[in-house]
Design brief:
With 244 residues, the chain is of the alpha+beta class. Helix content is 40%, strand content 17%. The protein folds into 2 domains: 17-106, D-Amino Acid Oxidase, Chain A, domain 2, CATH 3.30.9; 115-213, FAD/NAD(P)-binding domain (3-Layer(bba) Sandwich). A 5-stranded antiparallel β-sheet has the order 2-3-4-1-5. Helix 2 (72-80) packs antiparallel against helix 3 (87-93). The longest helix has 30 residues, at 157-186. 28% of the residues are buried. It binds flavin-adenine dinucleotide (FAD).
Length: 244
């Protein structure tokens, strides 16, 4: 659909990393704090889920199109088997066919708009981004809210879509670029390069506080509010009162 709407756009390109994901039983590891650990051109994250199972993800800066002939679990054991606990235990607990592997492609060149005529794009179709900020799905949800906000109850759909496009394009373009910058930082593979990166991050006081500050202006997003003529009741309140 994107190609049909914007035939001159170059489309998604490889972001330089491949990713693995898995969910394993709780028995895989004793209790641990959720973490994300960076190595040389690789990262690993482990998150306990509410039901007790463990979600884990990994990424590595490798050429696109790779697959392990003896399976992705074996590939993870080779790449992460000597990392700190609970990483090796989590890999060992994954079923041989339960590890997903996907190359990451992103839309580094922004689309000229997220709509054309009466057709709109949202989510990855509009702004595929590297997962290094965990924002792709979040931004798709924001798109949906803003799209619904601007669509008129009646009348000119094109104007509503243009307002949606104007509001979402700059915000998501910034997050695509920020995610790409973090991907490049994570992808540093040489020993001196990674040492320099880690030293600079330590000197900058990198820790939970600084990591969270990277989300300033992103995680504090508030949905648009509809305004109503003075004295006119909010339709949701009116409906609620009518039901009572
Ligand atoms: C490793 C990894 C980690 C991630 N981590 C996070 C995270 O922590 N937080 C976060 O917010 N996001 C994360 N994301 C990003 C998130 O998964 C995506 O941004 C989100 O799934 C995009 O949703 P979407 O509906 O736009 O597209 P998709 O989820 O790709 O859905 C599109 C659907 O359309 C279907 N489809 C395609 N073509 C057709 C067709 N012609 N006809 C019918 N159906 C079709 C596809 O099969 C698919 O089901 C991550 C992504 C990856 C790869």
């Amino acid at each position: 659909m994107r190609r049909a709407l914007f035939p001159d756009h170059p489309g998604p390109v490889y972001a330089g990393i491949t990713t693995w994901r898995m969910v394993v039983p709780a028995t895989a590891a004793a209790s641990f704090a959720p973490h994300e650990t960076w190595g040389r051109g690789a990262l690993w994250g482990s998150q306990p889920l509410l039901d007790g199972r463990i979600y884990a993800y990994a990424a590595a800066a490798v050429p696109a199109g790779g697959h392990s002939p003896d399976g992705e679990k074996a590939e993870l054991l080779r790449r992460f088997g000597d990392w700190h606990s609970p990483v090796p235990e989590i890999v060992a607990a994954a079923g041989p066919d339960e590890v997903l592997r996907h190359d990451v492609r992103h839309l580094v060149a922004p689309l000229p708009a997220f709509h054309r005529g009466r057709t709109a794009l949202l989510g990855d179709a509009a702004h595929a981004m590297a997962p290094t900020m965990g924002q792709g799905g979040n931004q798709a949800i924001e798109d949906g809210i803003v799209l619904a906000h601007h669509l008129p109850d009646a009348g000119d759909v094109g104007t509503g879509l243009a307002a949606y496009s104007a509001e979402r394009l700059p915000r998501t373009t910034g997050i695509v670029r920020k995610s790409a910058r973090i991907t490049r930082l994570m992808s540093v593979r040489s020993v001196p390069g990674a040492a320099l990166r880690d030293t600079l991050m330590t000197l900058a006081g990198f820790g939970p506080g600084l990591a969270l500050r990277a989300f300033d202006g992103i995680a504090d997003w508030l949905p648009p509010q509809r305004t109503y003529a003075a004295g006119a009741p909010d339709p949701q309140i009116r409906d609620h009162q009518a039901q009572r």
